[in-house]
Description:
The structure is a single chain. Helices cover 51% and strands 11% of the residues. It has two domains: 23-87, Double Stranded RNA Binding Domain; 90-142. The chain is elongated and about 110 Å long. The chain contains two helices and three strands. It has a three-stranded antiparallel sheet with strand order 1-2-3, covered by helices on one side. It is mainly α. It starts with 22 loop residues before the first strand and ends with a helix. It has helices at residues 66-86, 91-145, and strands at residues 23-28, 46-51, 56-60.
Amino acid sequence: MSKQPHRTRPLLHTPLNLGNAGIFRTYMLKRPPGQPPSLCNKTSSAVQLIHLPTNTVVKSQATRSRSQNRKIALQILAEKVELLQKGDESRAAIVAETKRKRKASMTKKSKRKYRALEEKKRREKEEAEISREGEEEGRGEEADELPRR
């Protein structure tokens, strides 16, 4: 067994730890759009976070739990602040670039595959036409060569 070198990936750093400094939290009444207030739950489970230094606002009402929504909103806020601070070197930008490259590669492979299939089909069709023409020419000559009685 030969040992192949272990391929290493570039390490993605963890998102920023914002802590509580400069973050303003509000808990809002979760209301689905378009429904009358009497038909919706009246719990304040939606969370809105404002990062004061960058003036970035994030709202989350993904779950019914206030604490889970707060965690989700903090993750989203950390990603947004990191994207603002680091730009193309941020974790979100690196992940998006990797996904974009993977999608482009898949599209390229798909085009190559179907182009090859179309080429094969076209070649088979041309060969069938050529063989059909050859058979028709051969029949005409055979009819002329038949002996007359």
